[in-house]
Amino acid sequence: MRLLQISDQANISKYADIEPSVRGTKIIIHDGVMIDSFVKIKPVGGDGDVIIGKNTNINSGCVLYSGNGITIGESVQIASNCTLAPVNHEYQSKEVTIKEQRFMPSRGGILIEDDVWIGANSVILDGAIIRKGAVIGANSLVNGEIEEYSVNVGSPVRKIGERT
């Protein structure tokens, strides 16, 4: 299996930067995906795959680290300058630099189900699960599970309503 699989029906800006994996991480981009200028997909911090479902849009300035894996469903809208980081640095020992301590164990990667909207400048961390139809407001921090069709804002994110 090829490590980089991009559908010929995807629209990837020539200014997007999708790095090849050196550790076997797969990056799979399905039909109808739009990846805008200055999006960075970087296999680092683990051996999880990045899978982007059909008709998903990732807008300018977003950064996706493979870490412990990212699975994005279909028809997801990710606004500009979002960071998806399914990895955390270890930092407990002050006798060893953070860089030398490497990474914490996985919290399960990131799962974003279908029909989700993530507002600009949001940060999605390892262990986040965003259920179908949820909305994440701009500048939010997500590190846990978000209910389907809920509307959420803040840092850390909190539920403020539901889609009707």
How does the SSE layout of this entry go?
Elements: E1 4-6, E2 11-12, E3 17-18, E4 27-29, E5 34-35, E6 40-42, E7 50-52, E8 57-58, E9 63-65, E10 70-72, E11 77-78, E12 83-85, H1 98-101, E13 110-112, E14 117-118, E15 123-125, E16 129-130, E17 135-136, E18 141-142, E19 145-146, E20 150-153, E21 158-162
Parallel strand pairs: 1-4, 2-5, 3-6, 4-7, 5-8, 6-9, 7-10, 8-11, 9-12, 10-13, 11-14, 12-15, 13-16, 14-17, 15-18, 16-19, 17-20
Antiparallel strand pairs: 20-21
**Strand runs, count:** 21
User: In angstroms, what separates the terminal alpha carbons?
Assistant: 42 Å
Radius of gyration: 16 Å
What is the helix tally?
1
Q: What would you call the shape?
A: globular
Residue runs with pLDDT of under 50 for 5 or more positions: none
Overall average pLDDT: 95
**Percent range of helical residues:** under 10%
Strand content: 25-35%
* Main sheet characteristics: 8 strands, mixed
H/E topology pattern:
EEEEEEEEEEEEHEEEEEEEEE
Biggest sheet, spatial arrangement of strands: 2-5-8-11-14-17-20-21
For this entry, what is the oligomeric state of its chains? Answer: single chain
Helix-strand makeup class: mainly beta
Structure report:
With about 160 residues, the protein is mainly β. Helices cover about 0% and strands about 35% of the residues. The chain is built from 1 helix and 21 strands. It has an 8-stranded mixed β-sheet, with no helix packed on it. A 7-stranded parallel β-sheet has the order 1-4-7-10-13-16-19, with no helix packed on it. A hairpin with a 4-residue loop joins β20 and β21. It is globular.
